[in-house]
Amino acid sequence: MIFREICHISSFLLSINFILSLIFPYPSLPHHFPPQSPIFPSKRAASGPAPNIRRTGGTNTVKNMLLDWCRAKTRGYEHVDVQNFSSSWSSGMAFCALIHKFFPDAFDYSTLDPAKRRENFALAFSTAEKLADCAQLLDVEDMARMSVPDAKCIYTYIQELYRSLVQKGLVKTKKQ
Question: What is the pTM of this model?
Fold first, then answer.
């Protein structure tokens, strides 16, 4: 119960951080504001969507963009069909596929078994931590215990992984 509450709070805070990192191209937002920054505009604030976030039809949220990114990066991997931030990740195979996409020499994806959930989670999280410097926000035992993972926890972890991959230069963003 406490784990889920922490995930909900972490998800909210990381969502804000993730959105700000897309909108503001400055490396350390709280410490570096140029004189004419979006935070302190010279005359008046702009209206409409932020320039770095492309909206189509009003339904393209950051969450949907991240889900689409996961879908694109795991396309073609056996036993992986990313449709959401919950049940699609329950076997650990989607995590492994996403990590394998960026670090193909780290492990042999073809030897993984969807039934070995605990091993898949452990492999994905430890590899992401070691090679991408991604904080291990999810606990292997908690993930193995849940038949359907909490969507906010998964979303929070994927945001952190994405941020880590961007910092490593493995994912290009519009501002790079």
Answer: 0.69
